[in-house]
Amino acid sequence: MSAIACGEQKRKKRRTGLKQQTPRNIEVQRKQELLNRIAPGLLTWYDKSRRSLPWREEPTPYRVWVSEIMLQQTRVEAVKPYFARFMERLPDIEALAEVDDDELLKLWEGLGYYSRARNLKAAAQQIVTEYGGEMPSDYRELLKLKGIGSYTAGAVSSIAFKQPNPAVDGNVLRVIARLLEDNSDISDQSVKKRVEDDLRPVMPKDRPGDFNQALMELGATVCLPNGAPKCSNCPWQEFCLVGLHGTWQQYPQKAAKKARTIEDKTILVIRTSRQVVLRKRPKKGLLAGLYEFPAMDKKASLEEVREWLKKQGGLQAMKEYNEKKAKILYDFLDESEMFKGTVVKEDRSLMNVPFVTGDKELDAKFVAEAEANGFVNLKGHRTVGGMRASIYNAMPIEGVEKLVEFMKDFEEKN
After folding, report:
1. How far is CA 144 from CA 99, 140, 163, 302, 393, in A?
2. What whole-number distance in Å separates Cα of residue 105 and Cα of residue 395?
3. Among the four 4, 62, 212, 279, which has the fewest Cβ within 10 Å?
4. What are phi and psi of 206, to 5 degrees?
5. Residue 82 and residue 105: Cα distance in Å, rounded?
6. Are 195 and 169 in contact (CB under 8 A)?
7. Quick one: which of 267, 402, 392, 403 has its CA closest to 322?
């Protein structure tokens, strides 16, 4: 083609307004066409198939917020009893802002990811001090609260305040990736941002909260994360690309997780008959502020454990406290082990006393008479060793002294 002819062709394209179709443009156009089709069928399906959940039936801003935080990394069925208990004890933002940390963590116990609970309280305190105790409705203001990211801000603003903001979680990312056969890495935050931008213009303005919940519901009950999706139940089965092509196993794409770090620890279970030694973890870092058994940061020998214990404060104070309470104690720094990883031994200072023989009938008679005289801690023990363990692990000192006198009388009579 001559230069004159080529130039004429370019001028013709400019005059007629024709735009050259590239593979990229075609892909974007196809994606937009599919996204434009998702809302009507999705909402019809949701109206018929939605699960009845406590936070859905009464979607106040506070209830929606707490439920969304609890549902992160946690199954719906597991959350239900925790949500009910949490709402009963902390029914509003003010109660959450004022709750004691230990009680809050107790309410959360079993849900895991305890930083979520701490962030809830911190955000509640922000709401009380900065927003007069009322949950802000604006998406950007919600993002300023501790522990609230784009997903939670989108969920709260759309469900509780009817604002058209997407709430994109793992379920939604999986559903959209399969719908479009999109091989982008869904663990990449830029991909999540792009999906949010793609969904915003197709959200129905009159039902943004239902739209978000329907997408989540579809991912949780139909387009499953593990195992084959239930395509016959899907409202998009006529145009979902993985459904049409049978390629669901290839989507979504996700980068491999980093290998877990394995650390060697020696855990010490140090206890008396009714107490155990615990320590509180630092306020920051892994399992921040939670209680744990004392631990050494390596696999330690018995000798190393004994030396480590001698250097720790608190054990002698614990022993003195128990003596003041008139309890029989363990000698923590003895050589014997009562529990794996624990250096403990019974204090036998009061055990050199007359005792019955190992005769079963005589032992049984002793136990019956002892119980008749009020020594109920012996119940269930039928051997000398068994009775002795019960006596010296659970009785006040004055009780042991009385029992010793009773034992002497019993021996004289039998």
Report:
1. 22, 7, 17, 51, 54
2. 33
3. 4
4. -90, -15
5. 12
6. no
7. 392
- Cα gap 158→211, rounded to integer Å: 9
Q: Give the whole-angstrom CA distance, residue 138 versus residue 127.
A: 13
In angstroms, the CA 330 to CA 322 distance is 10
Q: By CB neighbour count within 10 A (0-12 exposed, 13-18 middle, 19+ buried), where does 376 fall?
A: exposed
Active site residue 68: yes
Q: Which residues pair with 276 in a beta bridge?
A: 271
Residue with tokens 């969304």: 68
- Dihedral class, residue 374 (left if φ above 0, else alpha if ψ from -120 to 50, else beta): left
What DSSP string runs through 275-290?
-B--EEPPSSSTTTT-
295 or 388, greater pLDDT: 295
Separation between Cα atoms, residue 329 and residue 346, nearest integer Å: 7
Residues recorded for the chain: 414
State yes or no: pLDDT of 408 exceeds 80. no
User: What's at 168, amino acid-wise?
Assistant: V
Select the highest-mean-pLDDT range: 8-12, 266-270, 391-395, 401-405. 266-270
Q: How far is CA 221 from CA 50, 225, 226, 401, in A?
A: 10, 9, 11, 66
Separation between Cα atoms, residue 331 and residue 315, nearest integer Å: 10
First and final C-alpha spacing in the chain: 126
Do the beta carbons of residue 363 and residue 382 sit within 8 Å? yes
Of 235, 315, 303, the C-alpha closest to 45 is: 235
What is the number of H-type helices and E-type strands within the chain?
A: 20, 6
* Contact (CB, 8 A) for 166 and 199: yes
Is the sign of the CA dihedral 304, 305, 310, 311 positive or negative? positive
**Reduced to 3 states, what is the DSSP secondary structure of residue 396?**
strand
Task: Quote the pTM value.
Answer: 0.67
- Do the Cβ atoms of 200 and 165 come closer than 8 Å? yes
Band the pLDDT of 379: cuts 50, 70, 90: very low
Q: Which of 68, 196, 263, 361 is catalytic?
A: 68
CA atoms in the 13 A half-sphere facing the CB of 69: 25
